[in-house]
Amino acid sequence: MATTTAAPANEVHLAGRVSGGPTERELPSGDVLVQLRVVVPRPAARGRGAAGSRQRVDTIDVTCWSARSRRAALRLADGAGVEVTGALRRRFFRTGAGAASRYDVEATSVREVSLE
Q1: Taking the model in full, what pTM does it have?
Q2: Mean pLDDT of the chain
Q3: Which end of the chain is more exposed for a tag (fewer CB within 10 A), N or C?
Q4: What's the rounded Cα separation, in Å, for the pair 89 and 110?
Q5: Pairing of strands 98-112, 57-64
Q6: Which CATH number is 12-43+54-112 given?
């Protein structure tokens, strides 16, 4: 088997629908961010042993930090088609039960699109 090489990369490209509309938050530091959820349909399972998950969509949290991505996100309505590019990030925070983490996409680009 031949070995291929690849440069390390953390690149995310999503195309889906906005769920619930964007929300703007100001952090205690004074930084402002916009968060939204993007719902992306999963492809139909195919092939032998492709029963897989019965889940039909993935719901992905997106965070916009730059002024440009925040402005673009705030223009999106619930149900709008959206294309997001960015990077996968793991966020750490404290809860009443202790430390926790979650993944989200840190958007570098957000734009409304018409989906097929």
Answers
A1: 0.85
A2: 92
A3: N
A4: 17
A5: parallel
A6: 2.40.50.140
